[in-house]
Write a structure and sequence with these properties.
Helix content is about 60%, strand content about 0%. It is built from 16 helices and 2 strands. The longest helix is centred in the first third of the chain and has 29 residues, at about 25-50.
Length: about 425
């Protein structure tokens, strides 16, 4: 909203300083600041409201040190995160941008699903919460919306590199299609024509683009027309997996919020270079018009996660609940798909992946050993002392703040590796 106001003031009245709102870097910085402000200042009021409403967490006795002391801690703190993401985005982003619209819809959609789950747990006193099949149906529904938008919308395009001698160039300076940069090399030359494409980035490969249409080759000449049959299920799988991964990771104070903030920083860097012609050319990656605007959204996302840690760091004064965790994972998944970096998710979201796998492996190994050796043997020889993985380390006697810090460090290492893939090919 403020973008349009200050753009009008700049154009109509040449208002001093109004032109700064044209810059993504300035609006991203303001989004972070406002997001932190909302999280820390208004977060306290939201926590107070939740306490008055007696929205307290019911903690099962799992034999973990300090677990029962968390009984009654307010949950549904994801409302703080959602507010701190949406308000700065509405204030500073361009609301006619297809990617921003998609991120706002994704945030609200998964926020509602998570809220319903928390509401049933807290107010209906049903520990099971929203039935799993309804959660999955909601995630599938979002996947269909995202997949259809990215596939069918004419606003979702890429611009391909062209030969410097070609007249079909995207001029970077007024009237100069092949300007010189500071090193004396030609500036990037991209086609003026926007192309519909299902290409995505493959990490660690030199010619690192893969087109989902290639999978649809079984349809012959109609492969591009029917590629959505392949693309949309992949989108659904990614959103469901990452959303559930964040949900599983949200088990000890500060783990999900801190890990998500680290992932957000990495995605912000990737979005910026993908939406900038100079960096896209230098790094030899796809130039995706309008994705630079996503930097404002992800800046608000990072600010919301960091601000939430003000109250969620050990010992937590509030838990995000499914209201926050489902939304965080879904946002990360949709964002990565939008900037064509979804194949980097196993690296960027490595902590989520390992947490998810620890649960799957724990169940699979237990069932196998139960069938082969009996229930007593299976119980006595579990793969992990407890799953998800962070509870395994709690059982081993590590303090949860140390576990969180070490998981954050691993997350940072994975984030650096993900950024390095831009050059490691």
């Amino acid at each position: 909203m403020l973008y349009y106001l200050f753009y009008w003031l700049d154009q109509a009245y040449n208002f001093p300083g109004a032109g700064v709102f044209r810059y993504i870097s300035f609006r991203a910085a303001m989004a972070v600041f406002v997001s932190l402000l909302i999280s820390m200042v208004f977060g306290k009021r939201i926590i107070g409201f939740l306490r008055r409403m007696q929205v307290g967490e019911t903690v099962r006795d799992l034999g973990l040190t300090g677990q029962k002391e968390k009984e009654g801690t307010p949950t549904m703190g994801g409302l703080i995160i959602l507010s701190a993401i949406l308000i700065p985005t509405l204030l500073f982003a361009r609301l006619d941008n297809i990617y921003i619209i998609l991120m706002i819809v994704s945030t609200i959609w998964l926020g509602i699903i998570g809220f319903l789950d928390d509401y049933i747990k807290v107010f209906k006193k049903d520990k099971a919460g929203l039935h799993g099949k309804f959660k999955v149906m909601g995630q599938i529904g979002l996947g269909v919306i995202v997949g259809c938008t990215l596939y069918f919308s004419d606003a979702v395009v890429v611009r391909e590199k062209v030969n410097p001698e070609s007249k079909d160039l995207l001029s970077l300076t007024s009237g100069t299609p092949a300007a010189q940069n500071v090193n004396g090399n030609d500036l990037p030359l991209f086609s003026k024509n926007e192309t519909k494409s299902l290409a995505t980035t493959i990490p660690f490969l030199k010619n690192n683009e893969f087109d989902y249409t290639d999978i649809a080759g079984v349809f012959g000449d109609a492969a591009r027309q029917w590629a959505w049959i392949i693309f949309i299920p992949i989108v659904i799988f990614i959103i469901t997996a990452v959303s559930n991964g964040a949900n599983v990771t949200d088990g000890i104070d500060g783990l999900a919020a801190g890990t998500s903030a680290i992932i957000g920083v990495v995605l912000g860097i990737l979005a910026y270079v993908s939406g900038n012609t100079i960096f896209a050319d230098y790094l030899n990656i796809m130039y995706i018009p309008d994705t630079g605007e996503l930097v404002i959204f992800i800046a608000a996302f990072v600010g919301a996660c960091v601000g939430f840690l003000w109250y969620n760091a050990y010992p937590a004064q509030v838990f995000m609940g499914d209201t926050g965790s489902l939304a965080l994972g879904g946002i990360i998944a949709v964002f990565a798909i939008a900037i064509r970096k979804e194949l980097l998710i196993p690296i960027i979201c490595g902590v989520f992946l390992v947490e998810n796998l620890s649960v799957i492996l724990q169940v699979a190994v237990f069932k196998y050993r139960k069938k082969k050796f009996g229930i007593d043997y299976a119980k006595a020889n579990r793969l992990f002392l407890m799953s998800p993985l962070h509870h395994h380390y709690q059982k081993k006697g590590f303090h949860e703040s140390k576990i969180v810090s070490r998981f954050w460090i691993v997350g940072i290492m994975l984030g650096v590796l993900a950024i390095a893939t831009l050059k490691l090919r």
